[in-house]
Design a protein that fits this description.
By secondary structure, the chain is of the alpha+beta class. Helix content is 38%, strand content 31%. It has three helices and five strands.
Length: 96
């Protein structure tokens, strides 16, 4: 099963809100998911998602692939940089 981190739309007509979810890649966009990892409200001025950072990092460590939009949101929140630093530290340790 390939797990992807992606956005699932919620909210009313013309008032979108999104959940950041870990879902099986074969499921529908708003369909069944494994876990809710955060909320993103694009209408707020800040445009930053509210994330469960440790759970997002856990899924990334286990090989979950973020969508392009989710990767952008993770960069804005600083989670992607933390994940990349961990990954490069693991590679450096393994090379020794």
């Amino acid at each position: 099963m390939a797990v992807h981190l992606r956005l699932a739309r919620t909210g009313r007509h013309k008032r979108p809100m999104y959940r950041l979810v870990a879902a099986d890649s074969r499921k529908a966009r708003d369909g069944r998911f494994l876990e809710i990892l955060g909320i993103f409200d694009p209408l707020k001025s800040a445009g930053l998602p509210e994330l469960k950072q440790e759970r997002v990092l856990t899924w990334l460590r286990q090989g979950a692939q973020p969508s392009v939009t989710v990767r952008t949101l993770l960069r804005r929140a600083g989670v992607w940089k933390q994940f990349e630093a961990e990954k490069s530290a693991r590679k450096a340790t393994a090379a020794k």
